[in-house]
Structure prediction request, 141 residues.
Amino acid sequence: MIGLFCSINNSSTNAGISLAYSAAVQTIRESIIESSGWTGDGILLNGPVSSTAMTVIENTHVEDIQFPVHINYPAGTTAMTTISGFTGGSAAGGCNSVIVRQAGSQAGNILVGAINPNGCTNTLNNAGATTSGNVVAWATM
Prediction:
């Protein structure tokens, strides 16, 4: 998906984008996902996924969404995700963590870099361990 613009209705119970299965490569690039205080997920990467899945998210902005990227891969999967050039945004103070790896999900398969919280409380939430400020270098979650 390139150039996607998604505006989430605040009464929705669904993520803006939900990727639940892939046998190959999924790409989200140059996209904007926004709301006015949505208390859910902007992009949800949720299992079951193919053990060979590769997801790339780059050059994307999310505004006023509690969890812009929420990753919950089943333990034991080798699915991988790379996220770069990503900015959060919190005009109404609604963004908690730009990227969340769900506690209990597969660790070590997510590579992140060039992440700007842009008003979000945390930049990364790695199964409960949080980081704030810009993430310039590559980090693994």
